[in-house]
């Protein structure tokens, strides 16, 4: 994936004439990743933990898994 982004960054740099757009794009992608982690992955994790909470109690080390 990173190899593809290197090619894309050189195209963007050639089109704009500087690296500012590349760094802004990278910053935007990092922000999007953070927002997805908070608003998509975190609720998915909570739903998964609630669904499998009874299975963790039945295991020998269930108290460790429940946190």
Compact description:
With 67 residues, the chain is mainly α.
Can you walk through the features of this model?
The protein is mainly alpha-helical. It has one domain. The protein contains four helices and no strands. The radius of gyration is 21 Å and the shape is elongated. The mean pLDDT is 85.
Annotation keywords:
67 residues; mainly alpha; elongated
- Ranges with pLDDT <50 over ≥5 residues? none
Radius of gyration: 21 Å
Mean pLDDT: 85
Give a short account of the largest sheet.
Answer: none
Q: Report the span from N to C terminus.
A: 35 Å
Compute the number of structural domains: 1
Helix content: over 70%
Shape: elongated
Q: What share of residues are in beta strands?
A: under 5%
Report the total helices. 4
**DSSP, total strands:** 0
Assign the structural class, choosing from mainly alpha, mainly beta, alpha/beta, alpha+beta, or little secondary structure: mainly alpha
Order of helices and strands: HHHH
